[in-house]
Protein: Demethylmenaquinone methyltransferase
Organism: Kribbella capetownensis
Amino acid sequence: MTRADLTKQPQAVAAMFDNVAEGYDRTNAVATMGLEKHYWRPQTLGEIAPRKGMKILDLAAGTGASSIRLREAGAEVVSCDFSVGMLRVGKRRYPDLDLIAGDALRLPFADATFDVVTISWALRNVNDVTVALQEMLRVTRPGGRLVVLENSHPTWKPFRVAYLEYMMRAVPVVAKAVSTNPDAYEYLAESVRAWPGQEPLARTIEASGWTRVQWRNLTGGLVAIHRAVKPA
C-alpha cells in the first residue's frame, strides 16, 4: 500500500491520496465522528463568508466536498489539488466544479487572482509550509484573505494526551475498517502529532507576509481556524 512519511515528498503524498480518494470523505466522517462534516467545515464556511461575485481558491480541495458549498453560496470557486485521483472522484461527483491539478508550492495562477484562498487539512502535508503560504499570498488580491482549517493542539493537556492516543491508535483501526488504504492513515496520524500548535503556526503565517493573523479554536483546540489578510 502507498503511504507517505514525514519528509512529505510531493510524489509520495500525491500517490497516497490517489489511493484513498474513493473512500476519503467517508473515512473522515467516521474517524471524526461527524464533527468534520457537521461542525468544523460549516464553521470554516462561516469564516470564509462566500458570496456572489467573490473569487475563491479552494486549495487541496480533494474531491470538492468543500468547494461545492462555496459554489452554492454564489462564489466563483477554483478547486485545486495535486492528487489527480482525488480530482477524478470530485469530477464524477460534482461535474460542474472547476477542478485544476496543481502544486501548492508552484500554484498555476497569476498574481492577485483571488479574493480568498482557503486550505483545509492539507497545509501540514506540504514539505515547505512557508513557500506554500507565500504562494497563497502571491495569488491573493491586496486586502484579500487566507482561511486555514487544520488539526491543532487541544488547550487542555489531559485532553491533548487522550487525543494523540486516539490519533495514533484508534484512527488506523477505523481506517482498516472503512478505507482502501489504511496505511495512509498512519501517516496522517503521525503528521497531526508532529504539527505545530496554534501560536507557532500563526507566527509562520505572519512571517510569510500575511497580516492581522488570528485563530479560533474548535472543539477545545482539536482543530483551529487561522485567518489572515494580505497587505493592501
Observations:
- The two ends are 46 Å apart (CA to CA).
- Residues 10-154+196-230 form a domain with the Rossmann fold fold (CATH 3.40.50.150).
- The longest strand covers residues 140-151.
- The mean pLDDT is 88.
